[in-house]
């Protein structure tokens, strides 16, 4: 099973493809950040996110997509921008018929670190350990990797921690 996992943002979208083998071991096939410089228009950023994720999908053939849901922010403008980046990512997955599941940031942190208030360093450290990476991934890539692992830990649709269904988009 391969999962494309995404931590959406307009300027730095984290992405990863994680594979679970038959022996229940996990391996990061790829991970990184889709960077959009400050000088380009929002619309160009959204196209870049969609295209970059499409390349990842075509190269690694994931079977599902897991995306972090929009976090609570005090600025409506920030929420709209984050939502647009998330939409570009979901469209890339939908264009390739990938089922899309969303996970709240606190739920992802709880699955990886054991507490929903974990900081980015703790998430990166645990992801490095779980996936046996040589170094801590950057925060945005670590968050994307964490979203993918949270999907696996959820039982691909049912959260083993809470028994609740994951939200499928």
Task: Write up what this structure looks like.
This protein has one domain: Nucleotidyltransferase, domain 5. Helix content is 44%, strand content 21%. The chain is built from 5 helices and 6 strands, in the order E-E-E-H-E-H-E-H-H-H-E. The protein has a 6-stranded mixed β-sheet, sandwiched between helices. About 5% of the residues have low confidence.
What's this, in brief?
This protein has five helices and six strands; from the N terminus they run E-E-E-H-E-H-E-H-H-H-E. The chain has helices at 42-60, 76-94, 105-113, 120-131, 139-153, and strands at 2-7, 12-20, 26-35, 64-68, 100-103, 167-168.
Proportion in β-strands: 15-25%
Helix content: 40-55%
Segments where pLDDT lies below 50 for 5+ residues? 158-165
Q: N-to-C SSE series?
A: EEEHEHEHHHE
Helical stretch tally: 5
Give Rg in angstroms.
Answer: 15 Å
Kindly report the average pLDDT value: 88
> How many DSSP-defined strands?
6
CATH third-level topology: Nucleotidyltransferase, domain 5
Write a concise keyword list for the protein shown above.
169 residues, alpha/beta, Nucleotidyltransferase, domain 5, six-stranded mixed β-sheet, 5 helices, 6 strands
Topology (SSEs and partners):
Layout lengths: L1 E6 L4 E9 L5 E10 L6 H19 L3 E5 L7 H19 L5 E4 L1 H9 L6 H12 L7 H15 L13 E2 L1
Parallel strand pairs: 1-4, 4-5
Antiparallel strand pairs: 1-2, 2-3, 5-6
